[in-house]
Design goal:
Structural class: mainly beta
Number of domains: 2
Shape: elongated
């Protein structure tokens, strides 16, 4: 019975995520003051949060006609949720002030937060999480869904279990973790990045910051770093069943001395930044910008 209910709910989520031209059953606008947080709790459906320049929150929701959506101001927060009479999924389109911190949680949810200029926390069990913008603390988590973050500034925390993670045009302290997915960083400017996956590849495309610290670990995937020739990096490399290759000349031990499972150190420039790279079942590659997809004889 539990499995059947979960399957039905998942189907409802997919239908909601595909788009709906029906008029919303709920359409309510509430004035808010600066310092108020937006909290959205939704068991199943789609939550889309966009921004405008008004100090007000507009909540539009599509749901069963018997249900009711509660938009409740509390101390320091505006909470949006369906009451116990709602049957099935709820699809939200919410417009909030750009300054407003946003928190969205649920189980069978597809979540999109776009344009927020403050803290964002978006978490679901089954469904994709897409965040565009955000500053301060930006958290995006899913178990059965992909995670995408673009244009965030601050402390960024992204995690999934069975899908990939993609972070673009971001800056700040970044942590990304998944089990069965790839992790990619594109146009990232950060002095602190840590990423780990079990069954996936890791791509980092961005200039390492002087004195920056980076750690990338995968068990059954490749690690590809795209760095300019002018970067200053110390590469600390360990691979057990793969190879290490670089399209950029590095200072370090000759390839004849490289042994699988042994930690090796190479430098580029003055070696100011530190990149610790470890793969158990894949290869580690350093590439120039524009060549990340080119394959080498070391690729698996």
């Amino acid at each position: 019975m539990i499995l059947a209910t979960a399957a039905l709910t998942a189907a409802l989520v997919v239908q909601g995520a595909a788009g709906d031209s029906r008029a919303p059953q709920t359409d309510e606008t509430v004035a808010v003051t600066r310092g108020t947080r937006l909290i959205v709790e939704n068991f199943a459906g789609e939550v889309i949060v966009r921004t405008w320049d008004r100090d007000a929150v507009r909540v539009q929701a599509r749901h069963s006609t018997r249900g009711k959506i509660t938009v409740r101001p509390t101390a320091g927060a505006l909470t949006v949720r369906g009451d116990s009479s709602v049957r099935g999924s709820i699809d939200y389109e919410i417009t909030a002030p750009g300054w407003m911190p946003v928190r969205v949680t649920g189980t069978y949810n597809f979540v999109t937060v776009e344009g927020a200029q403050s803290e964002i926390h978006a978490e679901t069990t089954r469904g994709d999480v897409i965040v565009k913008g955000g500053s301060g603390a930006v958290t995006a988590k899913s178990i059965q869904g992909r995670v995408e973050i673009a244009g965030a500034r601050g402390r960024i925390n992204a995690s999934s279990v069975n899908e990939g993670i993609r972070i673009t045009d971001a800056s700040g302290e970044i942590t990304a973790e998944t089990t069965n997915g790839d992790i990619s960083f594109v146009q990232v400017k950060s002095s602190s990045v840590e990423a780990s996956t079990i069954n996936g590849n890791i791509l980092y495309d961005g200039p390492p910051a002087d004195r920056g610290r980076y750690r990338f670990t995968t068990h059954n995937g490749n690690i590809t770093l795209v760095v300019p020739d002018t970067a200053n990096v110390t590469f600390i490399v360990r691979t057990y069943n793969g190879a290490f290759s670089s399209a950029i000349p590095l200072n370090g031990p000759p390839r004849s001395e490289v042994r699988q499972g042994r930690r090796m150190t190479y430098t580029l420039g003055n070696g100011s930044a530190e990149m610790e790279l470890e793969s158990f079942g894949g290869s580690i590659r350093v590439r120039r910008p524009g060549t990340a997809t080119q394959k080498t004889k070391d690729d698996k």
